[in-house]
Amino acid sequence: MKQELVHVIAGNIFAITDAQGDIEPDPQLPVGLFAYDTRFLSHWVLRIDGERTNALSRDDLTYFETRFFLVPGTASHYIDADVSIIRHRSVHDCFHENITVLNHSSQPAEYTVRLEMASDFTDIVEVGQVRQRAVEVAADPARQQLVLRYQRERFIRETTVCSTVPADVDEQGMTFRIRIPPEGRWETDLHVTVTMGGEEGRDLRADLQSHQHALRTGMDEDLSRWLDRAPQLVAERAGLEELYQGSLADLAALRYQPFSYRERVPIGGLPWAMGLFGRDSIITCLQTMAFTPELAPSTLRMLALVQGGQLDDWLEEEPGKILAHLRYGETGAFRERTSALYYGAADTTPLFVVLLDEYERWSGDADLVRELRHPARMALDWIDEYGDLTGDGYVRYQRRNERYGAVNQSWKNSPDAIVDAHGRQPAFPRATCELQGYAYDAKRRGARLAREFWGDLAYADRLEREAAALKERFNRDFWLPHRGYYALALDPYGEPVDALASNMGHLLWSGIVADDRAEAVAEHLVGPRLFSGWGVRTFATGQRTYNPVGAHLGAVWPSDNAVIAAGLRRYRLDAQAARIAAGVFDMTLTLGGEVPEVIAGYERSLTTYPVQLATSCRPQAWSSGSLLMLLATVLGLRPTGDNLLVDPAVPEGFGRLELLDIPGRWGHSDAYARDRSTERRHRLR
User: Where does the Putative glycogen debranching enzyme N-terminal domain lie (predicted)?
Assistant: First the structure.
């Protein structure tokens, strides 16, 4: 079994190390110091008198700061060790490490402290197959600096390491020859800056400690402000308040500023999605609207800024299309895989309109709706002009970048995710069911924006007619009357893909489900084939390709479940929504720590413990956001004009819930609720 990995993170900059704080490349995981999709440190190993260290303990202070307590040598040296080491590490706009060596003996002691350093400047998407790069190394003893540099044409990345105390600097690292008095200590601060674009190097020693203190203080204050702005949760259920605070802190960690953009937007998750992903960012904003609404306007503006404006097969760009992801690594810069800008997603564009409308409902920010009128109308136009690939009125996808484009361009984007009950893959272009729900919702919401803010009544009427026709057509073509559920997709010939999958929960969320079919859909979602006890599986048991450890063929995603629970409450299926919410909360409380991106779909009674998948991101923005969305769902929070409606349906066993100072166009409001068992106990008293 591999040893534990430790991370510190601040937006797009993060470091993943072993339990001792050392960095050595792993072909399976992005171990190292990364920023903007590039690894700036691939080797960072501490030795004391030639020996590696071993961990005694660790103190994770915040998401951006941790301390390692170490001793040199093997476990046999732990008893009455004469020397110990503390590595205090933090990240913000750079990487900082304070190394303290403590002499516990009554005699002075001399040690050789060595820190080995190297960088391979690997693009994060190439971690499993690292190419050799010509890295320039410049040791600068006069400045106590080591500079590592890689350049390919105009693509330049540079790592500079500086020490606050004198060191012997060579091309492989820094050596400190130290003498410590009895019961004394020695320490140095190591400051690692990452540079993109060939900025001139500078002497980093000046005011390094005060600069580091100011940055860390700023990070602490930013986190405090973030937590203070969010509503306060008071929960009778043990562990729920801590889980809520942890989710808020994870969301704070997963914010970053794209280049040439002033505001921070949510990124995907650690380690594989540490950048702007259109789908993840939009869903995260929708999930957290009642808690951290400030994420939405910055995300909407950023996505509008990079909205598609031309036809480009390699980028899969089309006019009006909303970005799939934004990358800054070398492979994207030279179009060796997908480009830095990639648009291969069919759901981001309608969801952009959904988010814009939802944000206005909560905030009352009419100015933003007017500001983004053109991008929103371009997105609505895309649904019919470019999303409808066969002319049958359904949003479909088919990749145009045949070499590197995503095969499936919905949220279930693994290549084998869309199959029928017998495991057969449909032809392209594919129309998955939830895409039609998103398009329906976007048209309905776009009609409201056009009528109330854009002053275009004719356009509003047209969108409403189109939405109504889509709903009628969808309920005719996607419904499987002999199965009692909606098809996962339609193939290009209009034939249904008959798999039973979680996607139809998104249909409830969008409102496209006919009222007389909602209960049948709900019975499937919480039935034994889809519901594992921890949550709804992505793909039902009893089908040929069902796999409990298949990300989209049987595993359970908290983000998926949060949307499903919200959809169930939309159709007043409160008991089913509460059951799903309870399962996800139980899963997360059982695991502890950050909410996982995905767990295996094993039956809860079989494993009694949630089994995490090795490839999942943790922390992950839309997973942390899912806990907030589930809280809003069980409390029944919904903006209604200038008021906040509270209509709770709290799962049994949760007791009393209070959410205080919920922000919105009403100012701040409170929500109170208790589960029915608590209500019964109070009545009996």
Answer: 10-190
pLDDT, greater one: 74 or 156: 156
Q: Cα 85 to chain center, whole Å?
A: 34
pLDDT over threshold 60, residue 290: yes
Measured between alpha carbons, how far is 559 from 505 in angstroms, rounded to an integer?
12
HEC profile of 506-546:
HHHHHCCCCHHHHHHHHHHHCCCCCECCCCEECECCCCCCC
Q: What gap in Å lies between CA 491 and CA 656, rounded to an integer?
A: 48
Q: Give how far Cα 467 sits from Cα of 119, 164, 441, 571, Å.
A: 54, 64, 8, 18
Q: pLDDT exceeding 90 applies to what percent of the chain?
A: 86
| Rounded distance between C-alpha atoms, residue 342 and residue 347, angstroms | 14
Q: How far apart are CA 604 and CA 98, in angstroms?
A: 44
Q: What share of the chain is helix, strand, coil (3-state, %, to 5)?
A: 35, 25, 40
Tell whether pTM > 0.70.
yes
- Whole-number Å distance between alpha carbons of 346 and 409: 6
The rounded Cα 466 to chain-centroid distance in angstroms is: 33
Contact between 478 and 436 under an 8 Å Cβ cutoff? The reply is yes
Residue 364 has what pLDDT?
A: 98
CA distance 504 to 219: 41
Per-residue pLDDT tens over the stretch 220-232: 899 999 999 999 9
Query: How far, in Å, are 53, 94, 518 from residue 104 at the CA level?
Result: 17, 32, 69
Determine which of 269-278, 358-367, 529-538 has the lowest per-residue pLDDT on average: 269-278
- Is the backbone of residue 589 left (phi > 0), alpha (psi -120 to 50) or beta? alpha
Cis peptide upstream of residue 619 (ω within 30 degrees of 0): yes
